[in-house]
Amino acid sequence: MVFNISEELKKLPDKPGVYLMKNNEDIIYVGKARVLKNRVKQYFQKTNKSARIEKMVSLITSFEYIVTDSEVEALMLECNLIKLHSPKFNVMLKDDKTYPYIKITNEEYPIIYMTRKLLNDGGKYFGPYTDVFKVKSAIEYIKKMYPIRQCRKSSNRLKSVSRPCINYQMGRCLAPCSGNVSREEYMKMVNEVENILEGNISELVKKLEKQMEEYSNNYEFEKAAQIRDKISDVKSLIQKQKVSNFSENDIDVIGLYRNDTVCVQIFFVRNHKLIGRENYFFNNVEDLEDKEVVLEFMKQYYTSAVEIPSKIMVRYEVDDTGLLELLNQKKNMKVQIRTPKKGEKLRFIEMAEKNAKISLENMYKDVNKNKQALEELANLLELKDVPKYIESYDISNTSGHNIVGGMIVLENGNFKKNRYRKFKINDIFDQDDPKCMAQVLDRRLNKGINEKNEAFLPLPNLILLDGGITQINAVKEVLKKYNLNISLFGMIKNDKHTTKAILNDKNEELQLGNETLKNYVTNIQDEIHNFTIQYHRKIRDGKITKSILDDIPGIGIKKKQELLKKFGSVEKVLNASVEELTRVKGITKTIAEDITKQR
Known about the structure:
Elements: H1 5-9, E1 17-23, E2 26-33, H2 36-43, H3 51-59, E3 62-67, H4 71-85, E4 101-104, E5 112-115, E6 124-126, H5 132-145, H6 155-158, H7 166-169, H8 183-197, H9 202-217, H10 221-237, E7 250-258, E8 262-270, E9 273-282, H11 290-304, E10 311-313, H12 321-331, E11 336-338, H13 343-380, E12 389-398, E13 401-411, E14 414-415, E15 421-424, H14 433-449, E16 462-466, H15 469-481, E17 487-493, E18 499-503, E19 509-511, H16 515-547, H17 557-567, H18 570-575, H19 578-582, H20 589-596
Parallel strand pairs: 7-10, 10-11, 12-16, 16-17
Antiparallel strand pairs: 1-2, 1-3, 4-5, 4-6, 7-8, 8-9, 12-13, 13-14, 13-15, 17-18, 18-19
Helix pairs in contact: 5-10, 9-10, 14-15
């Protein structure tokens, strides 16, 4: 469905979270907010904005958001999504050095330190954190409380050390290098540190508070204040963060919320990060318990899913041997289904449930508006019944070349993308949109009526063409050919290229006075236009690729792929500067200059 930004802004929740600004399908900016409603609205208000933000806002066609429990959690998720998508308008947090982590190494005698790199080396990582100073301060204080070794020597080199270093003499290391502590005793201390970093800080805080009290009783108020600040730093550092749960690296998290309809939301955690989510809606399940709905969802979803996680987290116990066997076979290893009862993992499920609730509430708002818009559309067009099936068509070409047609479908007012269809026009070689439109409708109706192709059934109750009276007249002849009495209208735009009115076969303009109806018809016209032009660009760029890039000396398959990966399309490759082109792997200055000559 084409986005109506003003309408979607009204749905924003009064909660923290992450928002993703999009230009068509491309994510161009990721941000976080303490209050999503306030922050996202600011972009579309007439306030002073930098040139970069002004340009970004001008490109926004839609946005998405994910609700979190805190601003810190939103910041963690923002970092993950920026790393995943590399949005063009994000100028911060683009590499693994963005935020620090606390690492406990995987060695015979582990050490603890701050790092900005995540390695698959068996070490335990905690974070990421937002304040480098607090991370360093916390590590320093943990080391004072727990004399973990501080040298970076490997376990093999430790055994060759003849005597302990100065840290042992200062009481800041137990000197495992000299055999002064058993591994069992050392690991007991390390486990206590891990427990603290996982959020269990009560014992540490008690020790600090006791020390603070002693300083205060001795009138050493400055030192007491320093301990107070340490307590604050540790508490701030060890906030529970389920968005970056590094104890889990390959899980799906399933949350459910229901009213008259059920929404199941599934979060995908890969490589320790939340990388995406999907919503699924279910009707007519009033007689099923939540547990049963979740089980039915899992059966349907994982039967067709390409990727199976190592672990699935749900609120309800799942006892279905068939499902477990299916998961194990597809993953080629044992897949665990867990139902956490407390702690971080339960809160992750609660976050999925919270977002399912918001998605369901927004869906209902859309359904109600679509229902109202359909009724108003039927009244405006003087239709006997509210149309259940609507089809819309458009033609796209470049000066009569690479001509394509597009068809979109709406069922009960909602876009049904699985029924969208594309048509390539091969035997018309001039810019004749009415003739092309007639061919597309002829082919579509033939497949449904004569070929009984289920992909083109049922037939529509209403056809809306992106065009005027000439397109309407051309399609009327096709409907006569099949002896069909389908309501047919055109959608026309004004000189500002926005939806103006609906045109009937008498060339009369039917004005869209109501805002709800105008937005609805605009959505339809924008959706069919974008769908068709994207197909046209794909065909066009494919032909340009063969006729231009392949003819440039020095460009083979790999270099062509690198160019398209970098710039996104052949058109953008041709418009790039020599300097930009030479940044692509394998593209020399000579090749870059040859590319620019093709403009």
